[in-house]
Amino acid sequence: MSVEADTGLTDLKAVRRAIVIVDVVESVRLIQNFEADVISRWRRFVAEVRQQVLPAASGRLVKSLGDGMLLEFAAAPTAGAVCADLHRRIAAYNVDRPPEAALYLRAGAHVAHVLSCEEDVYGAGVNLAARLCGLAGPGETVVSDDFRADLVDGLDGDVEDLGQCELKNLEGTVRAFRLGMHTKPPLLPGFDTLWNERPSFAVLPLDTDPHDPRSGLVADVIGDQLIHELSLCGVWRVISRLSMVAFKGRNPCLDELSRLLKPTWVISGRCRNHQDTVHVHLEVTDVRSGSVLWSERLDSHQDELLQQDGSLGGRLVTSMLRAVFNFELQCSRTQSLPTLTSHTLLLATIALMHRVSQQDFMRARGLLEQLTERHRRSPEPHAWFAKWHVMRVVQGWSEGLEHDVAAARVCANRALEHQPHHALSLAVDGLVAGLLRKDLALSRQRYEAAIAANPSEALAWLFMSALHAYCDEGQAAATAAETALRLSPLDPLRYFYDSFAAHALLAADRPLQALAMAERSMRAHNSHMPTHRTLIVAQMWAGRPDDARRSAARLLSLWPTESVSGFLRRHPGSSSQLARRSAEALRDAGLPLN
What we know:
Elements: H1 3-7, E1 13-24, H2 27-57, E2 60-64, E3 68-73, H3 76-90, E4 105-116, E5 121-122, H4 124-135, E6 140-144, H5 145-149, E7 158-166, E8 173-180, E9 200-203, H6 213-231, E10 237-238, H7 241-244, H8 254-261, E11 265-274, E12 277-286, E13 292-301, H9 312-334, H10 342-353, H11 358-374, H12 379-394, H13 401-418, H14 423-436, H15 440-453, H16 458-470, H17 474-487, H18 494-507, H19 511-524, H20 529-541, H21 545-558, H22 564-570, H23 577-589
Parallel strand pairs: 4-6, 9-10, 9-11
Antiparallel strand pairs: 1-3, 1-4, 2-3, 4-5, 6-8, 7-8, 11-12, 12-13
Helix pairs in contact: 2-3, 6-9, 9-10, 10-11, 11-12, 12-13, 12-14, 13-14, 14-15, 14-16, 15-16, 16-17, 16-18, 17-18, 18-19, 18-20, 19-20, 20-21, 20-23, 22-23
C-alpha cells in the first residue's frame, strides 16, 4: 500500500535514510550561565553547518532545535563523516572561552525507512536516533547496528561495540556502537622498508551506470582481470580485490587512499556497456605527485572480456605498465641517485635491463650498485644483479665470460645467504649453474626449490624449460615454457620468454610453433644470438632451408666468429639429441664447422 493511500498525505515519501540527531551537551546549564554567548555561538555554528557542511555532503538540515539539530543523509558513511566533522568544527567556537563555557556535541545515528517531506521526517527510526544520542558522551557519536552495517572498518572510522544497551522509553535492548575518528595504527618495525613495503597498485572499483546492471558485472570482470594481470609480476604488491570492494560507489581522495592503503599508484576509471560493446576509460595516478601517468579509452566486444589471449584487461595492463616503467625511468634520469626512492631505482633498473640497447643495459649496472648498497641484507637487489650478469653473457655483451660467471654466482649466493628460500634468487642461481657452469643436477635442484617456494615464479618455470630441453625432455620443456608465459604474459622481457619457448618447442619436436615463437621474439629484439640460432633450426626443421640460409647469413654478419663447434661447446646439453640435431641444422644452413 502506498504512503498516500495509507495516510492520505500526498507530500510524504517513504525513503531509506541515515538520520542523525545532534545535541549540545549540558545545554540547560550552559544557557543558564552563558545565555547570550551560547545562543550566539550556536546560531553561528548552525549557519556554518547549513551553508558549508551539508551542501558538500548532500545532506539536509530537517530542523534546528534550540540546542540540537535533526539531519538527514542518503547514506551512513556520509552521515558518519559529517558527525566527525561537526565534533571537530565545534572546537573553534570554544576559543577564548573558559572550560566551563565550552560547547561539546553528542550525536546519535540510525539508518531506517522513514516518511519524509519538505518540513520534517517521521518514523520510529527518528526516535531511535534520538535515544542513541542520549548514550553518547561529549564529542561522541553512537550509532545503531543497522547504521554500523553500512560502514567499513578503517575506512569510515573506528567502531567500538557497546553491546546491548537499554534505551529510555524503548522496550528491550538495542545493539549500539561508538563511532570514533580515525586513529593511525602504530607501524611495525621495518614496515616501511622497501622490500617489506613494496611499491603497490590499488585498483579502485570502476564507476558504472547505476541504471544498467550489466555494466556493473562487466566492470567487476575487468577489475578482476587488472588485479590478476598486475599480480603476475613479483616486483610490486597488488592490493586485494576484497580490500578494494569497500570503495565501491565512493570517490576517495588520494590522501585518504594513502592513509589507509599506502599505494604507490591508483588505477581508477569508468565502464559503460552499450549493447554488446564495452566502453572503458582508465587512468593511473601516481599517489606521490598526484599526477596522471597514463590514461586510455578503449572499446571492446563483450566476447573479448574472457579471452585467455589478448584479454581486455591484459591489453590495458600492458599499456599502463609501459607508462609506469617509463615514468620511473624518467625520474631516475632527472634526479640525483641519493634522492631517488629505492623502488624507483628498482623499476628503472628493470626497464633498462629489458631494453635492446647495450648502452641502456650498461646503465642499469649503476642503479643495481645503488640498490645493493642500500639494501645489503635484502635478497632482491642481489638476485637482480645476478640476473644482469647472466643477461650480459646471453646477450653476447660480456667482455669477460669468466668474470661475469663468477660475479653472477657471488650475487646469487649473497641473495640466498639472506633468504635461502627466495624464489627469484634460487631461479637465477639455477640459471648460473646450468647455463654458465653446465651443472645440470644443481640447476634442476635450484629450479625445483624455487617453484616449491613460489609456484608463481615465472622465471623458475622459464629456466626449467631450458633444462628439460637440455635433457631431451621435450614435452616437459614445452609445458614449463607455456606455464612461464601464462604466469608472466606481460613481462617487459617478453622476447626473452618467447626465445626460451621457441627452444622448448624445438625439444618437443613442434618446429612450426617454435618458428612462430622465434619470429615473434626476433621482431621484438633482432640482435639476440640464441634466438637467431633457434630461428635457423626451426626454419630447417619446418622445411624452409632457403629462409634458414638467409638467417644464417644474418647471424654471421652480426657474429662473424660463430660456428657449429662453438655452439656445441657452449651448449649445456651438448650431448643431447636436441643439441646434435640443432648442430646439423646449423651446419646445413651454412654455419662453418669451426
